[in-house]
Amino acid sequence: MKNATDLFFDAFANKNRFNILMQLRNKEMCAGDLQKTLGVEQTNLSHDLKCLLNCKFISVRKEGRKRVYKINNETNELVDEVAKHVKNYETYLKKCGILKEEKNGRI
User: Fold this and answer.
1) What's the CATH number where 52 sits?
2) How far apart are CA 92 and CA 66, in angstroms?
3) Residue 28 Cα distances to 12, 41, 42, 95, 96, angstroms
4) Which residues contact 17 (CB under 8 A, 6 or more apart)?
5) In the 8-state DSSP scheme, what is residue 41?
6) Which of 29, 44, 85, 101 could pair with 33 in a Cys bridge, judged by C-beta atoms 3.0 to 4.6 Å apart?
7) Whole domain around residue 85: which residue ranges?
8) Which of 98, 86, 89 is nearest to 19 (CA)?
9) Coil, helix or strand for 70?
């Protein structure tokens, strides 16, 4: 069994889940709007939303027949910090040969 730190980074390392969090930091959204904005399949979106809900990174409320998702305050602060770091280190991340090799399966 992985430890909590590994699981935490697994949750955030998933591109779709992180993109959901990035969208929700701006406003509450229903699944249909997230799907249109992110261009992901409904089944994948449902799976990722369920994970984020189970981990308590987001919450959901019913609004008529819709389910509206909201990022929690602590997660929002973390995502904002990550976004700042990505912007600050973007040039270096793109130039990193090790990351390129890992992406291509060479390491």
Assistant:
1) 1.10.10.10
2) 42
3) 19, 20, 18, 35, 35
4) 11, 48, 51, 52
5) -
6) 29
7) 4-103
8) 86
9) strand
25-69 pLDDT, tens digit each: 989 999 999 999 999 999 999 999 999 999 999 999 999 999 999
The Cα 79–Cα 74 span in angstroms is 9
Q: What's the number of domains the chain is made of?
A: 1
Q: How many residues does the chain have?
A: 107
The residue ranking higher by pLDDT, 86 or 104, is 86
| Count of alpha carbons within 13 angstroms of residue 44, beta-carbon side | 13
User: Residue-wise over 11-21: b if at least 16 C-beta within 10 A, else e?
Assistant: bbeeebbbbbb
Q: What DSSP element (H or E) covers 30? A: strand 29-30
> pLDDT confidence of 107, banded at 50, 70, 90?
low
Sign of CA dihedral 93, 7, 71, 40: positive
Q: Which residues pair with 68 in a beta bridge?
A: 30, 61
- Which residue do the tokens 């890992």 mark? 102
Report how far residue 79's alpha carbon sits from residue 73's, in angstroms, rounded to the nearest whole number. 10
